[in-house]
Write a structure and sequence with these properties.
Elements (H helix, E strand, L loop, with lengths): L1 E5 L8 E5 L9 E11 L1 H7 L16 E9 L11 E5 L8 E5 L3 E2 L7 H4 L3 H13 L7 E4 L5 H13 L2 E6 L2 H10 L3 E4 L4 H8 L5 E6 L6 H7 E9 L12 H6 L3 E4 L7 H14 L1 H5 L8 E5 L3 H10 L5 E5 L1
Parallel strand pairs: 8-9, 8-11, 9-10, 11-12, 12-13, 14-15
Antiparallel strand pairs: 1-2, 3-4, 3-6, 3-15, 4-5, 5-7
Helix pairs in contact: 3-4, 3-9, 6-7
């Protein structure tokens, strides 16, 4: 198979395309002939040496793919060679062949092309599992940081479909416009006083839930922006891993801080999350209530350019590698 490998940690220049031996599908797994691979911030962090794969998982980058079933392992029912699919991986997605636990493999939404479908599952699984964890309810205020990115552009639409009041932060006029087009009631430039802007837009209420990809750099501001009984959901560390938490403010607001990573969850948990995505998210996509994020496609041979573009901060929506 062809695969993108990293011989050392560093910038995009450490990525190279090479030939490797195909994996095999073990018991409970399927082998996928990959059509396209989603590009995520986690890939950039792993390339830099900041996000190692779980024990026993390949060090090839890539957490989601689309393609067709190439082989079916022992004990797997419901799949046949040639079936179109999307899959959630703990690693190994930047390759033309991937072995994946069958519970983490879904048929793509009806009518969607496979390249676009490559950028759906990791995003949907991350957002739905976390918003379910903190019980986002209709009518509640959700603030999504990075509302024009891959995670954010889905989260804004999904939460609006649930009946939440959605607000977002972003860093440019184009991105702020996209957030509003996707369903955000208002979008705030993160260079400005976004906690104050949120308070003004919600008549002093603040956010019942904050979905945060930044981490440490926003910790104090996030607590300031929470409503009483608010829940801060940390799903990324773009702004660092160590911050200052004012426990007195959190106590006064009866606040909750939740932090989760999807990648390291046991296969049975991932299978349950994927099944929930198929049940709750796929119909929204098929009905046009939620639409795929704007996407930029790169041939796999241009993976360095894809990483450079994502790191630049200019990217809108989802980046996808095509094979």
């Amino acid at each position: 198979m062809r695969a993108i490998v990293t011989e050392t940690f560093g910038g995009p220049e450490v990525l190279s395309l090479t030939e490797l031996t195909d994996p095999v599908s073990g018991p409970g797994e399927v082998l996928i002939e990959v059509v396209a691979s989603g590009v995520n911030r986690a890939d950039l962090m792993q390339r830099q040496g900041l996000y190692p794969p779980p024990r026993g998982v390949t060090d090839i980058l890539g957490l989601e793919v689309s393609g067709r079933i190439a082989a079916v392992g022992e004990g797997v029912d419901g799949w046949q060679p040639g079936d179109a699919c999307v899959a959630l991986l703990a690693g190994g997605g930047y390759a033309t062949v991937a072995a994946v636990p069958a519970g983490q493999v879904l048929r793509p939404p009806h009518g969607m092309d496979l390249v676009t479908a490559a950028g759906l599952l990791e995003v949907a699984a991350t957002v739905t599992s976390n918003l379910t964890r903190v019980a986002l309810a209709p009518g509640e205020v959700l603030l999504v940081h990075g509302g024009a990115g891959g995670i954010g552009s889905f989260a804004v639409q999904y939460a609006a479909a649930l009946g939440a009041r959605v607000f977002a932060t972003a860093g440019s006029a184009d991105k702020l416009r996209l957030c509003r087009e996707l369903g955000a009631e208002a979008a705030f430039d993160y260079h400005d006083d976004w906690p104050g802007a949120l308070q003004g837009a919600t008549a002093g209420h603040g956010a019942d839930v904050i979905l945060d990809v930044i981490g440490a750099a926003y910790l104090e501001s996030n607590v300031e922006a929470l409503a009483d009984d608010g829940r801060l959901v940390v799903i990324g560390l773009q702004g660092g891993r160590t911050g200052t938490l004012d426990l007195a403010k959190l106590l006064a607001k009866r606040g909750l801080v939740s932090a989760t990573s999807l990648r390291g969850r046991p296969p049975e948990q991932k299978a349950a999350i994927c099944a929930d995505v198929a049940r709750t998210v796929w119909p929204l996509l098929e009905q046009g209530i939620v639409r795929p994020a704007p996407e930029t496609r790169f041939p796999a041979s241009s993976v360095r350019a894809a990483h450079e573009y994502l790191e630049s901060g200019d990217a809108l929506g989802k980046l996808i590698l095509t094979w």
